[in-house]
Amino acid sequence: MRFAPSPTGSLHVGGARTALYNWLVAKKGQLDFPGEDAGFIIRVEDTDLARSTKESEESVLADLRWLGLNWDEGPGVDGERGPYRQSERGELYQKVAKKLLDDGMAYPCFCTQEELEEMKAKQEAEGIPPRYDGTWRDADPELVKQKMEEGAPYTIRFKVPAGARVVIEDAVRGTVSWDAESTVGDFILLRSNGVPVYNFCVAVDDSTMGVTTVIRAEEHLTNTLRQGLILDALGAPRPRYAHCSLILGEDKQKLSKRHGATSCNQFRLDGFLPDAMINYLALLGWNDGTDNEIFTRDELIDAFDVDRVVKSPSIFDMDKLKWINSQHLKMMSIEEVADLVREQMDSLGLLKEGADGVGARNAIFASTALAKQMMETTQDAATNAQTVLGYGLPDSFDKIDDLEQKEMIQVGHFYPIAQALLRDFEAETLPQPDPADPLAPFLEDINKPIEEDNKVGGTAYSYPKAYKVHMKNLSKELGVKGKNLFHPLRLALTGEMSGQDVTKQMALLAMASEEDTCIDTEKAGVVTMKARMDHLKAFCETIPEEFRAPKPKENKKKAKAEEKSSEPSTEAKAAATPAVADPLDTYEGPPITALDIRVGRITKVWEHPDADKLFCEEVDVGEDEPRQIASGLRPYMNAEDMEGRMVLVLSNLKARKMVGFPSHGMVLCASNEDHTEVKFVSPPVDAKVGERVTIPGFDFEGEEGQPFAENKIGKKKIFEKLAPFLVTNEFGTPEFLGRPFLTSAGVCTSPVGGGNVA
């Protein structure tokens, strides 16, 4: 196998995929036939002297090394098939051209440029496809000798045999054939200055290097005609060919710079992993016949087969690449990812120049651990650290743009909680990270790194535990708990409404606030705890009096009696009651009809053998065979209680493997905010298995009401965008924008009020 880049620019996605496919076939051949002559060659096709540069060659080779596509022979790795640059193989091309001349399969052509242009113009005027007319093909040998003696410039042309046809069995495109004589005419092998043309070099190189299979882009398909004719004339076997379709952008146009990053080096700089890149590149035109989309390098070598490369063009999907990259990141430990995160932090200037030692290692470890579960690229960890070290609380209440922030403050709990934090900070009773144990929030008691977002580290006497105790006491003091406590706390301490565990964020901030910190505080935009408290104090002074305390709760019985006694007439009610705003009026997300939620019945449940939080389920959703679905319900339910249950199933999620188990769909559950209570969302007992759940006010019948395809649901993150609006009301009824989930038998229910549906 060979990959033959032209050193005229960077290695882009298409070239990288071509290199990968060739590399995979070569590696598989080496494993399947040990000791046989199998290998991967890099051959630099630098015959375009005007555009080829040494810098481009080095760039392409560096990108191949980054991808891990190491070659058995090529530049820097000598072997019996060298040299490996076409510019260094000129003597061989001259020798082969002379052999073709001597064998009568090529001839000198003395046509001038003017004569060739006149020939072309005449053919075009007559409606004939332009091609060389064979003027010197059968010229008088004496005339040829005379021209040679005169020193007239000439090219060497290939003599296309009369009636010649070239037929190949392309591994991707099937049978492809050309009428050589009418298609190309006698074509040039050597220019008048002795420089060989591209197709001649390729055919000679493939022959002399023993290339048996050529995988390349479809734009090279037409070159196969000339190369096949030359190989036949040399008596050399033709390689097997596989011409892969183009890679397109999401607008269905050929992928180019206007679609964003397309060079491998840019993907490296943006924080993508080489293993994730080759995983994704392999899927741009190939699959293994299963629904699996995550492959290790060894798994790709074992599974790849050129016969499964598809003919249709592939669409480059950045969201899909990021998802695959995130899956590979999740398979790595924090320590393995940390070095890559350091590169990103250096790139953004977050670390002081030459930062090293324990402090730097701790800050990089903390930045990595904070973002480990949410990052799609290693760059995400660096930008997340920047967000954590900054403080996004607005200067005043009037300057709040985030509606969620403003509404939370207006409830009235934020102000008293902020005042308590300010009081405790000034009294130095607010727990702070321990400088002697800066990584406590990130490590379990046995000093193992915490990989999951929902776990807090530290020993019994460490900062995370002290923080938890303090906030528990604050909850009792103020008589507030749940989201009414934690949302204001998070906003006051971090300046954000959401994010990772607060103690972990504060620990990273403490590292960045030390006098000898490795963090470049100016470039990172560090806002210390003292500066945050000063900012918070000034902000609180701008909160209107009406929002500085929660509204008192009325005696419900008394209020109800008063309401009944003073209840106005129906006419007065209608006149006085303002219209309630419909949340649909301001909703801008995907349509709820995009989801295919069906009534299902769980028929079988068993524990996942390799994951202690997963159940494996068979669910009847009205199809020929039950769906197999994996769900993280083991901490919340018993298998015996699940079997036979009627449930709701999101059915148009693409099948994927969950710790090796092929899962196709998601059983919908309702949960409270801290995820301590998780229960099924249940259809009525008389609902029909397989029927689609609907929402009042939306058309689920027409063309626009059809659910989205599985690929679109995943790639466009449709469910993620709809999820914030899928909730249960105070009575546990699942709703979308205040409208209930409906079946033919009535409204769906759940035991969890005021929760989320997912």
UniProtKB/TrEMBL annotation:
Q: What is its main location?
A: mitochondrion
Which residue stretches belong to region Disordered? 550-587
State the EC number(s). 6.1.1.17
In Gene Ontology terms, what is one molecular function of this protein?
Answer: zinc ion binding
Composition-biased stretches (Low complexity) = 567-579
Question: What's any GO biological process attached to this entry?
Answer: glutamyl-tRNA aminoacylation
As for subcellular location, the record says: Mitochondrion
Is this entry keyworded Thylakoid?
A: no
Which keywords does UniProt give here?
A: Aminoacyl-tRNA synthetase, ATP-binding, Ligase, Nucleotide-binding, Protein biosynthesis, RNA-binding, tRNA-binding
Say if the entry is tagged with keyword Protein biosynthesis. yes
Q: What class of enzyme is it?
A: ligase
Question: GO cellular component terms?
Answer: mitochondrion
Cited SUPFAM superfamilies: An anticodon-binding domain of class I aminoacyl-tRNA synthetases, Nucleic acid-binding proteins, Nucleotidylyl transferase
TRNA-binding domain sequence ranges: 591-694
- Annotated family: Belongs to the class-I aminoacyl-tRNA synthetase family. Glutamate--tRNA ligase type 1 subfamily.
State what protein this is by name: glutamate--tRNA ligase
What organism does this protein naturally occur in? Pseudictyota dubia
